[in-house]
Amino acid sequence: MDSTFREIRGRDLFVQSIIPELYELYPGKISFVDRFLRTKVRSETLSKQDRDLLHNLILGVLRDNESAVIKTLLIFFTDLEGYLRKNLGRSVERYSSRPIRQLYEDAKIPKDTKHVSLGNLLTLYILAFRDSTAGDALPRIHPEALAHLRNLAAHSAEELLRGWENLFETLVKDLPGVRYLIRVIERITGSGIISAYH
Q: How far apart are CA 70 and CA 156, in angstroms?
């Protein structure tokens, strides 16, 4: 029993559950990752996929590996964006009392837009769901903040790593809303999202 207590002394079990490598392999970086996870993440409800996503993002930061962080975020956002785009019509028809043209107008998206951005897709879903009881339970989602994070992953790795704590905090706080959105779409379409992080 003494060895068990010695083993966990100085380790936060929640932090270790997210990034088990931290205490053994990155002793010089424990304080900032430990502080981030304990103060910004611990209070959030995380799915296994959320934990895997967070693990891979933080591991990339610990290794100073920009490409690992970028790859993880781009997989997450590309899969999400594709799924939202594919299911937009059926989901909006089911939940919104307004036609999709009206939702575009309400979201201030030009009618001739060929490829709706991630931020605009999220806004359209939020507007559609607010027309129904599904919107009553929708956890918070910040479309602009998520779109900004996706754009940083695609275009500005240096800024992404420099501000990782605030950016990852935004992502973690919006994950319950994203998960809820996906569950509602799955109920409507019968089609789940295929992704490592969803």
A: 9
73-111 residue pLDDT tens? 999 999 999 999 999 988 888 888 888 889 999 999 987
Structure tokens belonging to residue 33: 């990752």
Q: Answer for the pair 16, 34: CB distance below 8 angstroms, yes or no.
A: no
Tokens encoding 141 = 């989602």
Distance CA 49, CA 57 (A): 12
Question: Per-residue confidence at 54, pLDDT binned at 50, 70, 90?
Answer: very high
Rounded-to-integer distance, Cα 73 and Cα 150, Å: 7
Q: Classify residue 175 by burial, with Cβ atoms within 10 Å: 0-12, 13-18, 19+.
A: buried
